[in-house]
Amino acid sequence: MKSNRIFISWLRWPLYVRIGLIIIALILLFGQLIYMLEPKQFTSVFEGIWWAVITVATVGYGDYVPQTPLGQIAGMVLVLSGASFVTAYFATLSSAVFSKQHRYVEGKVAFKGKGHVILIGWNEKSHMLLKELQHIAPSKTVVLIDDSLREGPLIENVHFIRGHAADDSTLNKANITEADTVILTADQQKNESEADMLSVLTLLAIKGLHPSVYCIVEILTERYVKNAERAGANKILCTSRLSSRVMFEHYRVKLQLAKPQTLSDLTLEKKVRIIPVPEELKGSSYHDCALYYLKRNTTIIGIQKEEGPMLTPPLSYQVLDTDLFLAL
């Protein structure tokens, strides 16, 4: 039973470690053996070990050569057995390195660092966010969690973990307890309600493992904002609210530029103003007009022509009598 336990323990060791130990044992054994068989040719055990290493490596310097039949037989056995084990060792080592690299690309290797940012979900927003993070903090490590990618993006300082972000095992692989910030983007492959429910569920799992981590969450619908707040989100971005507001503000700017007479009816904080062209600037270049107003703490952003607004015209453009300046 004891020998069986030893054998099982031996089998549990990595293959390259077992082969390496066998190679070392062969070198020591044959180094001692050749010293005993040919003491005149090999004057010390170290010389025998040196000969065994060179023979196993199939280099064959020729500085030590067995002279007797028994020594030559020992050399043949060492070449056949040792060279085989050395070849197997390097093949196994290469395979282990390739397997480790492949597991890393596939998102199966756990992250061991600290103070990192965890980004959940891979989409265009995540891609742009990674670029921004690398611009302001190039040395900051980002752990990307996603279950739709087969292989992670090859981006510097990005560690990919493949799995469902709501699973504790996936979050532990990302070392959630040592994370500095978690950014949770909505799942683009689900409808809005399902994506928000999944975001809230993931947020609960994150806060359960690391209650103090700072969480930024994207919510698509207004009704799930309260649920995200209850789940512990530190910052909530309601995408529908933001996008609709931005689109409406752009529409108001378009109305303001297209219909100057309705300026008093619009409420875009009166940012864009319509200024008539002074007599001394009529016929001047746009460049000279811009400098003229800059000295008076006014920024010219374009010209309102009869046919419509012209933003950032060429600096050489000649201002007409019928033009109006668009100013901030």
UniProtKB/TrEMBL annotation:
Keyword Ion transport assigned: yes
Pfam families for the chain: Ion_trans_2, TrkA_N
Bilayer topology annotation: Multi-pass membrane protein
Signal peptide range in chain numbering: none
Keywords: Ion channel, Ion transport, Membrane, Transmembrane, Transmembrane helix, Transport
Gene3D superfamilies tied to this protein: 1.10.287.70, NAD(P)-binding Rossmann-like Domain (3.40.50.720)
Transmembrane segments: 15-35, 42-61, 73-98
Name this protein carries in UniProt: Potassium channel family protein
